[in-house]
Amino acid sequence: MAATGWLERLRAARKTALLADGKRKIHYLFEDGKEMAEEYDLKTHQLLLRKWREKNALGAHGNWEVEVGEPTLLAAGALDREFIKESNTNPVFMRKDTKSSFQWRIRNLPYPKDVYSVSVEKDQRCCVIHTTNKKYYKKFTIPDLDRFQLPLDSTALSFTHANNTLIITYQKPTEILAAEEELQKELKKIKAANNGEGDCKTQ
Predict the structure, then answer these.
(1) For 9-23, 76-90, 126-140, which range has the lowest pLDDT when averaged over its residues?
(2) Considering only CA atoms, which of 192, 202, 158, 153 is closest in space to residue 176?
(3) CB-based burial of residue 47 (10 Å sphere; 0-12 exposed, 13-18 middle, 19+ buried)?
(4) What Pfam families does this protein map onto (predicted)?
(5) CB 2 within 8 A of CB 143
(6) Which of 41, 169, 26, 22 is nearest to 96 (CA)?
(7) In CATH, which of 2.60.40.790, 1.10.645.10, 3.40.30.10, 3.30.470.20 is domain 2-69+84-194?
(8) 104 touches 93 (CB < 8 A)
(9) pLDDT tens digits, residue range 48-107?
């Protein structure tokens, strides 16, 4: 099963844990050299951040790519800061999950709800957002479903709009809910490096 395959890959990865700022921070190093970093709320165990990094053809580390959480702004010089300031009305796309659903928020979209359409493209394994006024269009995938080789279900998809923000929700399949529960059990076994318990456990 694909779910078992992904969990086994996580178990096989070299993992390091830190506790800081009310978060459990986990770093994974996979056999193929890819790295994944996750942050969970210590009280709710809710995923706050997931990002990926891999080496380029020359063996140097690439930039982190955020999958879940706030997009990362790189250290900005004066010109960059000015550009960011001028561009803060552009739509900002980010993913912020809940316990039971994958959720995406696109800020700075002022149009009324009836302008938007959100649909599933099963053949392309992606979701599509477009507006009747042709002011915004975006395709995005759900990597979790790809990792578990699960089909996209249009009935799991819904959206709402409030405060200039389009909020898209996709209900997590039972297979992913079960896998996430299993993963939390695994993560709790890892001793945090800064928790007075010595070195981190690697699996």
Answers:
(1) 76-90
(2) 153
(3) buried
(4) DPCD
(5) no
(6) 169
(7) 2.60.40.790
(8) yes
(9) 999 999 987 777 888 899 999 987 654 444 445 444 554 578 999 999 999 999 999 999
